[in-house]
Amino acid sequence: MLAGLDPEQRTAVTAPAGPVCILAGAGTGKTRAITHRIAYRTLTGEVSPRHVLAVTFTARAAAEMRARLTALGATGVQARTFHAAALRQVRYFAPRLLDGRQMPELLESKARVVGLAAARAGVRADRTGARDLASEIEWAKSSLVEPGEYPVAAAKALREPPFEPALVAEVFAAYETLKRRQGVIDFEDMLRAAVWGIDEHPDVAEQIRAQYRHFVVDEYQDVNPLQQRLLDAWLGGRDDITVVGDASQTIYSFTGATSSYLIDFPRQRREAVVIRLVRDYRSTPQVVGLANAVIRQARGSEARLRLELVGQRPPGAEPELKIFPDEAAEAAAVARRCRELIATGTPASEIAVLFRINAQSETYEEALAAAEVPYVVRGAERFFERTEIRQAMIALRAAVRSTPGETPLVQAVVDGLAATGWSREQPPSGGAAREQWEALAALVGLAEEYAREPALVPIGDGGRVQRDVSLSAFNDELARRAEQQHAPTVEGVTLASLHSAKGLEWDAVFLVGLADGTLPTTYAKTPDQLEEERRLLYVGVTRARQWLWLSYGQMRSASGRARRPCRFLPQLERHSPTERASDRSRKPDRRRPQVTSCRICGATLLAGADRKLGRCPTCPSDLDEDLHARLLEWRSRTAAGLKVPAYVVFTDA
Ligand code: ATP
Ligand code: MG
């Protein structure tokens, strides 16, 4: 087991019981080291698998850790997200802690309840406003800030609240009241309940601590104060804990995460074994070189800890920046390249297209679909936001009452979905209906996966209980996944936000939309926010094993302004691929002309979806002559009330 590790990793793996901390850059084998440490300690009999709790931040990372442990022969270890571990604990102890009262249900959509709370507090918030308020409340709760403390805490943390801080505090308080009345809890409440159970109930604390004796935390740079509080409650002053992280990859500070726990760990626990790794086993030296260049300029408290990565893999292609006329051309070129990669032997699942904001996903979904490249959208609010999935979740909750007691879970789900008109046997043959059918089939796939997990789960000191595989437990699992945006996986090119790509790797990675205004987003204004954007780029670059593509579309379709490359990229060779007619995967949408204002003279023009027309007819120098002549002709026809193509409308005419 020690053979596939370098000397520093080996030190981490074989370190005796007690605090261990690995501080190292991306791709240096931190996750590998902790999975080997768990396997090593359990297989040598030093610790029992059932006494280990490994926590990480996404369900996918937890599942991956379980898979890696199983491959190493270490079974029975609990590898969970903070949320899943807390949910399990709260559920298990609920009968004891709630005096027979029913456990509150998990809130499905925070933004909806926040919207209601805003209305109660007299704050007018549209959908975006409600969503921004919800993230502000999430930040406060994750940072252990109560409603009354919010204005001061927000000012101290240099937050940029969507409304006056006092109003946010009011909405926050109203939200808490509303939830209590409705008998629902959110995910932060669940973590708080887990902490409360331990703090206030010595027997619960004793039982938990008897079970969990060895702790491992991956991606520790993204822990927030509430999660740290839970970790401390679990530990109860003990110190057999291994943490690994990279402060340069802190990308969740907007939700309250802070790398200070990681940075301070060696100082807080002076006996800790502290290990630094610099060999990068993931990426080609070219990619490693770019990653170093991106993060070298970073400022912040973690900078002094940073060591340059040293690439270990054979050389590959030099990354270059490709600049396209617009986003549609960029997406079409990405789709075409994906096709080529797949045709030359790269599995689709080894390719990822990563972007800054989820709204970018749609352009790539369309382009990949048009190029007939299979894709999977990760990050998955898309999956759980789909109408048919929402309806299915409602139907499944309703089905709990009507499902006979002994029905196996998968059958219960299939029956429940039948109420929405879905039939497992009859997949429709085209288009949108098929897509909906596949989404529901993925839901059944989730039920199958859920039912397959080990039937007995360890509890307490050596005991085991039957895992709850009822429809109602599965519904809770779905609500949890919806909240965590953890969609089921399907084979295909991964489309993911940079945030959800953390810890993962692919042979080929496309980093798209690398223009100022998208990365960094226009919302990042303070120096701290901009530093977080830089770290996001670093996370993105370091996901690629072999092949890295960087690009952006120069013209934003709506505003028509040419954009500049992402300011965090070092000087790279630039390349403006010429567009071919076949590059366009989408036909121009002639039904929806777009309003464009000329930057130079201010004339307004509705230019259809042929984005080459996005220039002003009164400033002809930018246009080729042919086009100019056509525009002038259309303009005079419009003025004369004659027919012009439906997608050409001069609004100033
Ligand atoms: P991140 O910061 O992105 O989470 P990480 O430090 O956790 O990265 P891993 O995912 O553990 O890195 O490892 C990166 C890749 O390098 C994996 O494919 C892993 O299998 C491989 N790797 C790690 N250590 C070694 C090693 N000693 N020899 C060969 N390959 C290794
Ligand atoms: Mg990792």
UniProtKB/TrEMBL annotation:
Residues 566-593 are annotated as: Disordered. ATP binds at A24, G25, A26, G27, T28, G29, K30, T31. It comes from the Bacteria. One of its GO terms (biological process) is recombinational repair. Its EC number is 5.6.2.4. Residues 285-546 form the UvrD-like helicase C-terminal domain. Residues 3-284 form the UvrD-like helicase ATP-binding domain. GO terms for molecular function: 3'-5' DNA helicase activity; ATP binding; DNA binding; hydrolase activity. The keyword Nucleotide-binding applies. Keywords: ATP-binding, Helicase, Hydrolase, Isomerase, Nucleotide-binding. Residues 572-586 have a biased composition (Basic and acidic residues). It catalyses: ATP + H2O = ADP + phosphate + H(+); Couples ATP hydrolysis with the unwinding of duplex DNA by translocating in the 3'-5' direction. GO terms for cellular component: cytosol; DNA helicase complex. CDD domains: DEXQc_UvrD, SF1_C_UvrD. SUPFAM superfamilies: HRDC-like, P-loop containing nucleoside triphosphate hydrolases. This is DNA 3'-5' helicase.
